[in-house]
Amino acid sequence: MLQPTVALLHFEIAQVEIEFGDKALEHDALDHLREATRIEPLNADAWRLLSIAYGRQGQIGDSALALAEAASARGEKKEARLEADRAQQKFPYGSPGYPRAQDIRDANKSTD
Questions:
Q1: Residues 47-97 pLDDT 10s
Q2: Which of 14, 45, 92, 108 has its CB surrounded by the most CB atoms within 10 Å?
Q3: 47 is in which domain, residue-wise?
């Protein structure tokens, strides 16, 4: 029998918590999604769901950064750059998310 990965379990628990719509579960969902994306940093679905969770918490910079990560994981360079730009506009210079957004921009530079 196949065993689900730990990242998949974190993702699925968070998905249920977010879809349930209970504000009390949102913080737990964020924890699960942060762990899922730490274990599987190329899981675009987990990044997208993390963006939703951040957005519901009013953390718009983090939400945009998660969307940039999702787009980058899917290979959508233009979208990754746009979301990284949006994230940088929301983060104060020097905050932890600011250089990560720049890293995503740099990694997704257009080759045309």
A1: 999 999 999 999 999 999 999 999 999 999 999 999 999 999 999 988 999
A2: 14
A3: 6-107
The answer to whether 10 and 33 are in contact (CB under 8 A) is: yes
CATH number at residue 41: 1.25.40.10
Q: pLDDT band at 4, cuts 50/70/90?
A: low
pLDDT at 1: 46
Helices (H), the chain: 6-20, 23-39, 44-56, 60-74, 77-90, 97-107
In angstroms, rounded to a whole number, what is the distance separating the alpha carbons of residues 18 and 20? 5
| Cβ atoms of residues 69 and 61 within 8 Å | no
* Non-local CB neighbours of 15 within 8 Å, separated by 6+ positions: 49
Distance from C-alpha of 51 to C-alpha of 53, rounded to nearest angstrom: 5
